[in-house]
Amino acid sequence: IRKAGATPPGGSRPSSGSCRFADYFVICGLDTDSGLEPDELSGKRASENFEQSPLRRTFKSKVLAHYPDNVEWNPFDQDAVGMLCMPKGLAFRTQVDNREPQFHSYIITREDGSRTYGFALTFFEEVTSKQICSAMQTLYHMHNAEQYDILHTPMSPKSPKRLEEQRPRPILQAAPAISRLQRFNSYDISRDTLFVSKCICLITPMAFAQACRKVLEQLYQAVSSPQPPPLPLESYVFNILYEVPLPPSGRSLKFSGVYGPVVCQRPSTCELPLFDFAIGEMFELLGVENVLQLFTCALLEMQILLYSQHYQRLMSVAESITALMFPFQWQHVYVPILPASLLHFLDAPVPYLMGLHSNGQDDRTKLELPQEANLCFVDIDNHFIELPEELPQFPNKLEFIQEISEVLMSFGISPEGRPHSSDSQPQYRSFRSVDMVTDKRNGNLASPLNSYLLRENETIARLQALVKRTGVSLEKDASGIRDARAQCDEEELKMHQLNIHVREVFANRFTQMFADYEVFVIQPSQDKESWFTNRDQMQNFDKASFLSDQPEPYLPFLSRFLETQMFASFIDIKILCHDDEEKEHTLRVFDSRVDKIRMLNVRTPTLRTSMYQKCTNIEEAGNLSYLQFEKADCIGPDNDSIEMRVHKIDHTALHPHLLDMKIGQGRYEQGFFPRLQSDVLSTGPTSNKWTKRSAPAQWRRRDRQKQHAEHLYLDNDQREVTPGKYIQEARNLGTTIRQPKLSNLSPSVIAQTNWKFVEGLLKECRNKTKRMLVEKMGREAVELGHGEVSITGVEENTLIASLCDLLERIWSHGLQVKQGKSALWSHLLHYQESKEKSATPGGLGPSGLIHDTERRKSDGGVSAMPPLKISLIQDMRHIQNMGEIKTDVGKARAWVRLSMEKKLLSRHLKQLLSEHELSKKLYKRYAFLRCDDEKEQFLYHLLSFNAVDYFCFTNVFTTIMIPYHVVVVSSKKLSGSMFTANPWVCVSGELAETGVLQIPRNTLEITFECQNLGKLTTVQMGHDNSGLYAKWLVEWVLVRNEITGHTYKFPCGRWLGKGVDDGSLERILVGELMTPSTENDDRLCRTPPMQQSPGMMRRFVTISPNSKPKLNTGQIQEGVGEAINGIVKHFHKPEKERGSLTLLLCGEYGLVWALEQVFQHGFKSPRLFKNIFIWDFLEKSQVYFESAEQREVNPDENWQSRVRHFCRFMRAINSTPRNIGKDGKFQMLVCLGARDHLLHHWIALLADCPITAQMYEDTALIKDRTLVNSLIRVLQTLQEFNITLEASLIKGVGI
Prior knowledge:
This protein has 1295 residues and is an alpha+beta fold.
């Protein structure tokens, strides 16, 4: 099966593709010619093969025959089919063992993602070959001799207890005494009959599991029953291969098995895709809670490993989980049954969904899994699931569980599931298990075989006893047979109905969640060809806008889900299918449901809530009165459709008939499934009503790949459409390796697969780093100069979590021996250990430090603060000292976050990997970390993260203790040395503040430890005004986080002291993060998204008004507009992505600065040597207002309340115990006015105040009526925002 338009190997694409029900009939089993070959690969696990008794060992099975030899559209893959029909190889039994037939299905996924299904029935046949029997006898003699030696080893002088401990444990358990050993594990050629497993299998393009099961069970019954079947076996196999077509969409088809009719039906194009496995079984095995967790892991493309003794359970759970993802499709490695010989697949450093067969003895701890950092491990038989760390919750999880539980209970299934008990299974299941053994549906219940099987099975024996007591005879009562058959059909119908109910509930979650997804799809401007060429660079979905519309609790899950391959492919296909005709089936069904929801609740994005809306798509089937569902209406009335299709059969296939065979052919020995006559089965009939016409409308189908895409779900008359090619390519984009080949395992093939993995990891690394940079850079570029600190929040966490996940996968590729759950942390620990051993004994600290020559130089006068040493080991120690982190995976993630924040990730990893001896010790030759070129490129990609500022450590570990270092730089020029007062500082960040810290006057620096403050925002500083010379000119304050190395600079440039500058004894400084640069100069380093402190501009205006060019009214208006704009933008962002509001209010060009310009404009120049501040003007106005209020100058109620407010705030600020100067008080007034939405009232008051006339020139802005009105209008825009002020800004004001 290849891509649309691609040529399959071995010829051109057939004109009509497969329109047959089955492509191949296969027989697998023991090849008597090649004899008993031990299957080393299958037995490799736990080296169990030779310790096992010969009957329990695995031997190689072969594909004995398959008919036809080959079909063009689905080339026969001998290796894969052989492995999957009998994943554990041949099994031997004797007459005392249980030999019930077992049914299982499997799937073969081609490298291009297309699928074909296999359905296999495995049963036991007597071994007739004398050579094989005697070979088994010989193996037993050898085995018993070994066991005997071990049991009768002469005692050594050591204590007996010690000796027992030395013996190999498995043998002890298996053989406590020779007599028991012989009784249970023996084979005696003279006494015992030897049986060997054989398998018959159908390979089909579509998964009609129930129909295939019936066909195989009836074929098996034909060879095992004493009466020969009505026709030779060839007739039935020929019929199913060549004469039974696939049913068209929305139709049902009836064809004949050996003993009874088989019905299969296919959903129409407006229903959910075909699904023929029992979803109820998965819920019974795992319970709703576990299923939902597994579902979440699958949606987030984790590595998923299913574990069970039953192949059918592995397949059933895998298929059910992927079916519930509708409309999304699993895009990665998908091997629901992993043959024992392919265990090395688990090393794949990509997301996968695999099923591993357990032998029922080993517990979970014995499983050596290469990587577990991101693994979801599901032990199906024990009702147990192990989840990866930091798994976000599925939105509305509790309500969702409640809704699913109601559906299950209405079908008699317990939402908790039933881990072990088989007796108390609800009716719905009990009939299914009886089905496994008998085939009640074929009306042939009275055959002795059935009674024999019934007697063999204990559960059924109990049922039989019960039935006898009630006086019903199972064997004779014909009406009973009819009832049983009707009951079976009803059971199957019930299974389909439960499937539809559950699938509708799941599909409804996605239609609700993505009801308006189309609005956010970014349609490409160029044509499809060029869009494809640049697909990696394109954004196809506006994630940020979509997430900003979502309720807060959804974000952790949704932000990660939007990053998955399955979501990207879904949107790509949406982009490629503009019009309805082109749409893929899945997309069409999903879009019609979305349209319906949008019609029902005409929703506007602003009304988005996390209200849970139940599924209303399940229309009551008229005759299902036992369902207590109150459902409204149905998009595709699936229940009814199924019932109608089952009761009213649309098509009946040709009946099996005699073939043109020679006399004597087609007669076989009872109890043995023969190799059939290949001459009659190798080709189909020459004339057939539906193969003769090349592709009649009713059976026309697009090529297979396209059909897999929609589970082969097409309109009857759909022609091949052009987007097919693009859709397939879209689906393959970004998936590095879709499916490793199940083939002969030569070292070269394994090496080639690993090479693909290495290339894939590199590509994924390139795409991830690019995506993270675009995300950051894009936003930073947009926000230049808008007072934004940086983006944080959900999206960044998602990207970093996926980077950590990628690093874990890279580090666990090709590991020699697995240690701990995190391969990266394990490597770091080895490195740490080797460095600490080789550290010089003179106590010069650990090596791994990079000393002064390589130290980072920082700028901005940070010579006051020597740079931190760069040390990989030191960063590890910081993480090891964090008590909050308990697991290795957590430590590795924290270390990656810290290195990202310090811009050292690439450098640290380069250093780690430069220890070549260590890498050789830990990794196999093919491992990614030992491919030098790829490793170099990988480190180079990581280097690009240094271009942006991340706070991914500070923002996540909010409760840890962090050491900070503070240095105050005072002016050298102006008598800093004479300063006598005692200085103090208080540092505030987004998360907390320190409280007042005294600073030694002689050094002016201090190091202290406190809980993480987050990104630093302000420093309050001052002194106690003691001593003779209490005047202090401070240039700036530096504060450094000693773990992340982030250094913040808080410029001041003003005096603190009575009678100097504005008389302030304390100031609030607003800080900026400094970026390290290579040259050490005294330039002020500006990080574009951060803001400078307010002090500089104001200093010039107040102290020496003439030294700065004055701003004109246009510039001032622009300044106010920009400042207000910054605040508006701040509030329009998702809460987690907002920066610091303090910067927007008090930072450079913030609101305080802008209003200062308004009041400075046209302020009358004071006399020489006397400074007048805006605060002086405001105080005079306050005095005027207070007297005017008493004189009741203006009777207007509004005016009076504004005056009252203004005076109250002025009084409160003036009476504060803090020693802030006049400019500090003005800043406080503006902040409070903004908070309480009073600024525009105050401006109006002051513009009309007589004091203004005295203190301002006529040209002043405040006297220009039109300018004042526009200023008032601009300030009014702040009214709709709820402004919360940082505590440090308004400390000491009780308003």
